[in-house]
User: Fold this.
Amino acid sequence: MSAGAMAMPDEATLSARLDSNPEYRTEFGDVFRGNAPISLDNIAASLASFLRTLVTPNSPFDRYLGGEAAALTPSAARGFHQFVETGCASCHFWVNMAGPVPGLAFGMGEGFYELFPNFVGSPYDARYHLMDEMGRYAVTQNEAHRRLWRVASLRNIALTAPYFHNGSVATLAEAVRVMARTELNQELGPAEVDDIVSFLHSLTGEHPTQTAPQLP
Assistant:
């Protein structure tokens, strides 16, 4: 875990924070056997187990793929075509619109990374501070990983503003314009952007009921 993840300076601080709570010690001990149940691996496993419950099926696009042609608005249907033709689908594809899943091109726990920005030199680099952070390199210190970022899922993307690793872009339309220019070296017109945004809205699914837990 890199410094700053989960607002913690390092792995030891995260483990110590949870271990200082008697109820967490009991609950981790009930699930994970061993002398030190509150470990980074077990914390990651707990979070991963929770995240796997956050499935949002039956989006308009899911229904469209299932044969319900009217599930997409005309604008969203045009946007899907534009999304593919522009090249967005070269990275954002498969089940989560985030590239291949483990088992196809890489192993469990590995990620699908792409260079960002790919085409350096647009006004967006400075406007949104896109070059200020080095992505995966900050964790691995591998020169080949400079400006490599894990490809994000586009499911429910209309609900997750602001956008990009630094939260510098406020709207989905602007994020589409930035991505087209910095990743694909293309300038999209207003109508093309509007249609792609309509398509991205069609990726919003049905959310599971979440009952806020009483934290220890």
